[in-house]
Amino acid sequence: MGNEPMTIAMIMGKMMGGGVESVIMNYYKHIDHSKVQFDFIIDKDSTIVPEKEIAELGGYIYQVAPYQQLREYDRDLTTLFKTNNYKIVHSQINTLSIFPLRIAKKCGIPIRIAHNHSTGAPKEWRKNWIKDALRPLSTIYPTHYMSPTFDTGKWLFGKKKSEQNLIVLKDAIDIKKFEYNTAQRISMRKKLGISSENFVIGNIGRMVWQKNQKYVLTLFNKIIQRIPEAKLLIVGEGPLKTDLLNLAKNLDLANKIVFVPYVE
């Protein structure tokens, strides 16, 4: 029993192949699995889940009702927490962490970590209203606070809590994935219909205001005035995709931009 790894219940919410999930997976791939394991607790309506990779690393995936279905969510998490007897719950879902961490406290889990990855979103009044309503409650249930920067932590947990107890955990990046590879360059350009003569600028990320792809497009519009053979490669999905497609059309850049959906 003493040789078994410590298991952390990792609350992921709805997995859609986003940046937070990528960061958590980067950590997971590089930790010592003989000492620490993750149980990934995800919403049933998740769309992109690295099931094979998690299984190969010894992890487990548990599906629960989304938090919007509060009664079912409470039932599913309560059953899971009590059955697996977790000692640590680490919630990655920002302001929404109050929902799983409330249940974790009710179940007597001693270590409850709230991890914030974002702040308010300009022009997203509905999301901001919900976030503003939940922010005052964000310090009730956690025993520990975590964020990738001090400012991100301060936004959710407040200045005093952040100065006293915040753990700043920088986002993990597997740099080997981004090493230059000539064969991959040739293959990918051919697949995407991009000539070897094209100067390519890449942007990877979910299509939301935080990633600022609208600015990328307006900047690219100036770049092609100097480098006419330039191409812009945007990889990702998100709620602003239609807006970006329309902006590309309005800027007469449709034939200069390649939109690529999420890829493994």
Architecture blueprint of SSEs:
Layout (H helix, E strand, L loop, with lengths): L5 E8 L5 H12 L5 E8 L7 H6 L3 E5 L5 H15 L3 E4 L6 H9 L4 E5 L9 H10 L9 E4 L2 H8 L1 H7 E3 L13 H11 L6 E6 L8 H14 L3 E6 L5 H10 L6 E4 L4
Parallel strand pairs: 1-2, 1-4, 2-3, 4-5, 5-6, 6-7, 8-9, 9-10
Helix pairs in contact: 3-4, 6-7
Question: What do you see in this structure?
Answer:
It is built from 10 helices and 10 strands. It is of the alpha/beta class and 264 residues long. The protein folds into 2 domains: 6-168, Rossmann fold (3-Layer(aba) Sandwich); 180-260, Rossmann fold (3-Layer(aba) Sandwich). A 7-stranded parallel sheet has the order 3-2-1-4-5-6-7. Strand 4, helix 4 (98-106) and strand 5 (111-115) form a beta-alpha-beta unit. Helix 3 (70-84) packs across helix 4 and helix 6 crosses helix 7. The two termini are 36 Å apart. The mean pLDDT is 92. This is Glycosyltransferase family 1 protein.
Order of helices and strands: EHEHEHEHEHEHHEHEHEHE
CA-based shape = globular
N-to-C CA distance: 36 Å
CATH architecture heading of the largest domain: 3-Layer(aba) Sandwich
Q: Please state how the strands of the largest beta sheet are arranged side by side.
A: 3-2-1-4-5-6-7
CATH topology of the largest domain: Rossmann fold
Number of helices: 10
CATH H-level superfamily title of the largest domain: Glycogen Phosphorylase B
Pfam family, one: Glycos_transf_1
GO molecular function, one term: glycosyltransferase activity
Keywords: Transferase
Protein name: Glycosyltransferase family 1 protein
